[in-house]
Amino acid sequence: MISINTNPAASAAAYSLDNVSRNLQKTLTRLSSGSRIVSPMDDAGGLAVSMRLNAAVRRTEATQNNVSNAQAFLETQDGVLRSAEKVINRLGELTQLGSDVTKSTNDLALYQAEVNSLKAQLGSLISETFNGVNLFTSGVAATENVNATTAIVASQDGSQTINITARNLGWVGHYTGTQSATTAGMIDVTSVTSSKAAITAINEAIQAIATLRAKNGAEQSRLGFAADVLAINKTNLESAASRITEVDIAEESAKLARFTILQQAGTAMLAQANQASGSLLRLLA
């Protein structure tokens, strides 16, 4: 049937060409943006999942920062403990020097002056802070148990926490006698007898420092493993989100070639369909 009012062939060709043009435009947009989901209608479910995954990635990055700050807190704390260890070791030297029977009273008085200065320095270390947060508790006791713990969130969903501790440096001061508190252990090298007695207090102080540093190291180790887990989780989350949202360049390039050829063919066929009505003129002539 040949009709003047309608041209079904041209309408069908125009419809096909329109569909091909839309698909071609979508392919071009995907390739230029690198995203497989250009609009929600492309993959509504995938878009929802990718949004949740991307949010989890952001939270994981924030958690990594928090864990890094906690590691810096413990590293700073250990740095102060190393300084305290050096002070204790020097005090130990002075007590040994004070036990020398060949030293005069004036010699021992000079040793005691250095001892008093070192004790003052040890006492000042207790007040050290990290970004305004106390590294140590100020209590002085014969045990370690005057500590203050802070829970650090170690997972993006908040389900896991790790405690870091503001440790009791006053425990060391209990054996050495700092200016910050009255203590049972006092380092006195003004006589040979008192110098020998102070050696016991020094040994206790060394053990206290060793315990504090060992537990600091244990917390640093745990935070290090937590940081590794967060880094792995972040990589996996990013990979999962990428598989959902990012375009497959090879596949989309093949589609581009296909739709380009179809568009050219559709344009040619539409032109042919439009020219078909011209044959009516020969019938009417």
3D structure, described in words:
The chain is mainly alpha-helical and 285 residues long. It has a domain at 80-221: f41 fragment of flagellin, N-terminal domain (Up-down Bundle), CATH 1.20.1330.10. Helix content is 69%, strand content 6%. The protein is built from seven helices and four strands; from the N terminus they run H-H-H-E-E-E-E-H-H-H-H. The strands form two sheets. A two-stranded antiparallel ribbon has the order 1-2. A two-stranded antiparallel sheet has the order 3-4. A hairpin with a 7-residue loop joins strand 3 (148-153) and strand 4. Helix 1 packs antiparallel against helix 6, helix 2 runs antiparallel to helix 3 and helix 2 (44-98) runs antiparallel to helix 5. The two termini are 18 Å apart.
- CATH secondary-structure class of the domain at 80-221: Mainly Alpha
Instruction: Note the gap between the termini.
Output: 18 Å
Write down the Rg: 39 Å
Poorly predicted runs: 179-184
Give the CATH topology of the domain at 80-221.
Answer: f41 fragment of flagellin, N-terminal domain
Please describe the structure with a list of short key phrases separated by commas or semicolons:
4 strands; 285 residues; f41 fragment of flagellin, N-terminal domain; mainly alpha
Short summary:
By secondary structure, the protein is mainly α.
Secondary-structure blueprint:
Blueprint: H1 8-33, H2 44-98, H3 105-125, E1 129-130, E2 133-134, E3 148-153, E4 161-166, H4 170-176, H5 192-245, H6 249-276, H7 279-284
Antiparallel strand pairs: 1-2, 3-4
Helix pairs in contact: 1-6, 2-3, 2-5, 4-5
